[in-house]
Each structure stands twice: as C-alpha cells, then as structure tokens.
Specification:
By secondary structure, this protein is of the alpha/beta class. The chain is 31% helix and 18% strand. The protein is globular and about 90 Å long. The structure holds 4-O-methyl-alpha-D-glucopyranuronic acid.
Amino acid sequence: MNRSEALGAVFFLSVGLLRGESGYDAWLRYERLSGAALDQYRQEVPAVLATLDESVVSFSARDEIVRGMRGMLGRTLRAESSVPQESAVVLGTLEEIRRAVPAWRLEASLAADAFWLKTVTAGRVNYIVITASNDRGLLYGAFALLRKIALGEPVANLDEREAPYAPIRWVNQWDNLDGSIERGYGGRSIFWENGRAREDLRRVGDYGRLLASLGINGCSINNVNANPRVLSPDFTPQIARIADALRPWGVRVAIAVDFGSPKSIGGLETFDPLDFKVAEWWKSRLDGIYQAIPDLAGIVLKADSEGRVGPSTYGRSHADAANVLARALKTHGGLLFYRGFVYDHHMDWNNPKNDRARAAYDNFHDLDGKFDDNVVIQIKNGPIDFQVREPASPLFGALEKTNEAIELQITQEYFGQAFHTVFLVPMWKEVLDFDTHAGNAMASTVKAVAAGKTFARPAGGFAGVANIGLDENWSGNQLSQANLYGYGRLAWNPDLSAKRILDEWTKLTFGADSKVDNTIAAIQLSSWRTYENYTGPLGLQTLTDIVGDHYSVNVEASERNGWGQWHRADENGVGMDRTVASGTGYIGQYRPAVAKMYESLETCPDDLLLFLHHVPYSYKLHSGKTVIQYIYDSHYEGADAVAEYVRQWKALRGRVDEQRYSQILAQLRYQAGQAIVWRDAVTTWFQRASKIVDAQGRAEHYPGRYEAESMKLDAYTVHDIAPAPAEDASGGKIVACTGAAVCTATLDYNGEPGWYTLNVEYFDLANGISHYRVFVGKQLVAEWSGDLRLPSRRMDAGASTRRVIPGIALRPGDEIRIEGRPDGREQAALDYLEIVREKN
Ligand code: GCV
C-alpha cells in the first residue's frame, strides 16, 4: 500500500465520525493522519523546530509549522532559536544557516520569495532545512512542507527548490468602505464597515494566512471604483491597521485611488496630471501614507472607464496619468497598476464597425514605451469583461516596453456568482498558455509575457479579483474556494495542470478518499464547459442580463445598448463580425500568426466562432453540426450535466461531513434547476429568432409540464412575466398571489398511476420570503420557504427556482394543490408544475 492508499484506507475507518465543518479552515485543515501514514511521518518529522530568523513573517512560518504538525501528527514541536545537536526542522535564510552551521555548505542562488527544502544529514542526525533568501520564502517553504505531508508526499531526502513564476502575485478586493463588495458573493467585507476598517480584523489575519499559503504577496484592499476618502490624511490609520494585520503573512497592502482626488479631496482646482501642483499633491499625499505604512505595495487606478474620471478630462494620455502617480511612488519602491479596462460604454450599437473588444489595444498600444518602469498595465484576460469564453486580450502581445499583469476574476460575476459551481482554472490555463506570437523569444505565451519574461521587463505577474467575504466558508459556495486556491497556485506556478491543482485542493479540503476526490474532480473539471454549454456557447459570451444583475439569463440584454457586449443575433444569423475583411478589424490587433488563424472560418476554433464571425444559423461547425443545432444541443447537455452532478454528489453521503455535504447538495440542486431555466430561455429565444426548430423537438416542448396559468386557481392571478423577457417564464406567463394571504393552484391528475417526482418552478426574490406547501389530496407532501439569497428583486429568470419533490405516488383522480403565502414584494409566484415518472 502506498502512502496515499494508506491515507485512503484510514479515511474509511473514520467515516461516521465526520464532524461538521463550516469550510472556514478551507485548505488549511491539517486533518489528523492515522495508520501507516501517521507512523511514517511521526518517524520522519523531528521533535525540534529551530527558527534562526527573527522576523514577524518567520514567526508566522514557525507557528504555522507547529500548528500544522500538531494537527496532522498530534505532536507539538519544541521551538528553539538555534540548531540543536539532535534532528530538527531548521528554518532560516541561506545567510543565517551559513553563519550558524557553515559545515552544511548550503549554497544556492534563490530569487526573492523562492524556497529550498533540503534534508541535511549529519551522522545519525537529520535536519529538514527550510531556507530562502528572504523571510517570505521561508513562510512559503513552511507551507510547502506542510502541504506535502497533508497530501501524503514523502518528506525524507528532500531536495526541492521552488521559485515563483512572477514577482507580482496580488489579489484585488472590490470592497467598498461601507462594507459592501462590488461583485462580491461571499458576504460583506472582512476589511471595512461603516466607512472604517472593521474593529475586529482577526478575519483579515486569517485571510492573510490563506493567501500566504498560496504565495500571494500583495492585496489591494478597496474597490477600484475608489472612494476618494481613501486618500484623506485622517483615513490613513485605517489602511495602516489592515496593513498590520496582513504583514505577518508577507502580504503587502495596496490601495485603489480615484484620479480626481487632487481636486475632490485635495482642494486643488484641477486634477490635470501635467499640472505641477497636482504632481506635488500626489507626492506629498503618498509620502504621508508611506510614513505610516512604509511597505505599501502600491496603487491601483481605474481611470476613464465606466464613469470614472481620467486624463481625458484634460486631453492627457494614460501614460501622463500613470506616470504622475508612479513618480510619487518611485522613491518608496511602490508600483502603479493602471487598469487596461478602458472603454466607452456609450457606443453606438447601430454602427457595425464599433467594437468594445478593440478598446484595450486601441487605448494602450501606441503608448508602449511611454510608461515609467514602475507602472504595470493590468489587463483583463479577455478583451470584453470576464465572459464565459473570450479569446486572450490582444493587448498582451502588443506591449514590448511596458510592464503587464494579467487580471483574472476569481469572483464569479458572470459565472453564476455563488450559486453555480464553476471551476475557473481550466479557463485561466487556456488563456495563460495561449501563444501571442509576440517577440522572437521562445516563450511568448500570455503567462510569459504577463510575467515580464518575454521582453525582460522589471515587473509583471498576476492580479486576481478575490471572491471572499464574511461568510463562514469565505466564498458563499464551498466548491468556489477552489477558485481562490487555483488562482494562487497558478500565480505561483502557471505550469501546474488544472487537474493537479484540483487534486491538491480536494485532498486538502475534503481528505484523501478517492471516491470523494474523483467525484469532485469530475464535477469541477467539467464545470466550466458545462456552464458555458447552458449559458453561452461558441463564443456568444454569457447571455446574461448585462444591464441588470449579470446573473439571470437575458439573451437580448446585450443588444441595443452602449455596453458593447453584443452578439448580433437576429433572424438571419448570429455572431460579431470582428474580421479585418468585413468586420470591426479586431482580429488585426493580434500578431499575424494569430490573426491569420482567427480571420479564416476554416481555422477559427468553434469555441470562439461567434465571438469573431457573424454566420447564418445553418453554418456548419467543424463537427458538421449546424450552429443552431449546437446551441440547442449544448443547452440540453449542460442542464443534463448539472443534474448528473447532483446524482454524483449524493453518492458521497457519509463520506463528506454532513454540514458541507448538505450545503453542496443544496447548491448543486439549485444549480440544476437554474440550468434548466437557462436552457429553456435560450433555446426558446433562438428557436423564435431563427425560425429553425430544434431537430430533436425539445425546445418549447416540455412533456409532463403543466403551466400554473392553466391550473385551477384560487386567488392566484395570471400575469405576463414582463418586464422580464417573455422566455424567462415557461409559456411567458406566471401566476402571482397579489391580493390575498393565501393562494392556491390545483391540478387534477389523470395520468398513469405510479411513482413520480414533482418539480415546482417558483420565484424566489431577494425582497421577501414566501411560504409554499404542496398537497396530494389532503396529504402535505412538501413545504418550504423562498429564502435563498438570490440577486433578483423582480420576477425573472434569476428568481426562477425549482423545488424537486421526489417519491410521490400518484393515482388518476388525485388532486395536486400548491399553496402559496406571499411575503412583502415576493408574491409566492409560480411558473409551472412538472410531473416526471420515476424509474423503478
Ligand atoms: C469594479 C465590470 C464589473 C464592474 C467592475 C468593472 C471593472 O464592468 O461589472 O463591477 O467594477 O468590471 O473591472 O472595473
């Protein structure tokens, strides 16, 4: 039996003793080992931990090792400050170890933050040495050693060096000072409350620990739609408190600022970046902040975008804007992140040559070489805005004399928020591995360019928009924690495979039961494709409510507005023509080899077809299937896949602690229902638009479905779903309980006798908690409340929720009665009842 088999065997013995887990410990659970694995590690891990380095970060490393070993091995290592004569774990920088034990001759050149795990044997004494060139490297080495043990990997005869791929490995918080979070789905901010840093910042420290375990070294702590107050002198102590909480974990704090601050809070008449008074103001204000926080990592700036002011007010360039701040930061070693997300959201949609995807390149390409060396252009992975599928932004391959960082969105704004499980690492990998064909170096992948390798830039790396909040499980969805883990692991080493990252996360988070691990892998690794299948395949982007919650399905919302997320679907065809030959010319922004591939229909990948080309619905994909049939099929496949996730997860009962088991089951069940809502809305919309019917006859044809409006209604009244799009409700109509305390919808069942599942489609709004009861005859068979924390405040597809009631015996003549009690603005509304025969 190898070590992981041993761990697996032990797991089975402990089934039944699984205590409930909230998810707070995430992947740092340090679950107690047992059996052969425990015996082996107890032999291999010495009793003493010698910490030679005396920095606060090294003390975190020391304490983490003690904590981890105590958890996994049930042993408390004896902490010492010099190398003992007996076996020990030794934690010290190369220089400190050389000084303490020159005989070990530990020679290596280690980059900043890199670490080396090395077994040193002196006679019968063994040392596990964790060394680095700086204290952060020691901390990362400590986490790496603990991860090895938790994963069941050997720790005897160690000789492993790891260096981070890129110097910049940051997270961005879009947390507002009032405690809300823009696009945050894991609860309120752990940083801010009522305009100040929270009184109790322990949670920030715990977050720092999670980040450090992944090698993340910077955190921008407020929304890029920045409140100018963040720069007021009296606010600096608030930032300093947060910096103090993160410092022990080697995470440096950055802030996002508003470009108009010199005027709005500085008392100047202008914020023109070329005005010397403005430059002086930035300098003196940042000097003030550095006095309080000498290790401030830098500034993030969103300018001239989505209503934020910027240099265009004075006819100045983005380089003028970036450099005035960069120069104020320079003496302090700070970086200025200038966001490449600059576009016009008032574009004329009637002009077929207009194209938001062009914006980043058009805005920044000509400025290459004009930015100071401590400016980093932070570029979203795709040219639009974190859609379910986009090509890599052409700007990556277009800047040779400018630092870059890739911005990835960990929070699932367009990916079902906290309600859908979508593991984003496979998508990020595709972008990171994409060859830009920039330069003539060997490495011209997006990751190499962004990390500064391709053009030997002094700075570069990763910025991830984080998905955490005050929810006990951090991200509002247990399985979404994998995205933060995956982001951090990729920022450290983008060459890791999605599978490897997921396997690590699963074992650390749920333990080493191969059935659990395989099931989670099957769900997570297919989840991006599944979500794409039911929300917007072939490069349509996410067909969501662009002008609303970015959650609900709304195919038309992308069109006829200035936001530019157009897919140009009409009765004749679908897709944005971005070709050079006849379209917006966007494809010409790529290097010739890439442009050639995208420009031709023969070589354009099907997954991006409709992002790059406009084609008739009957256009045949490489697979031979027509575009329209693919749209139908993929939506059915996507919805079926989520239903399968539910079945797979249910097989894990008893193998995962009950708390997380039932939370994940509820989440997947909800997702399965929403996938059907998406499926039905999109297929209905396209069937009506294209006038080409689904060859399999599924769209708008739902066996076993009884529309609520066709049931016998008592006090319920029938309404069009409008203003939500007609396809948001089955049959376009709903029933709502508007003028009574209780309403009922009744159906006389006349089908075959047998066992059935009843699916009740109802509307769960954010502003009320209705109550529902379902009776068969006089017998109450189900009862629930519409109390999910969904974003919708009106009856639309985002509120449409499915209640599944399995195992119901029906006979002809049975009366099925749904009773709804409204609450506030939530009107206990119903869409339909579906009666599905169960297999025996
Ligand atoms: C912080 C998208 C989001 C906005 C976000 C913006 C950005 O448009 O919907 O909430 O604002 O991106 O990245 O700046």
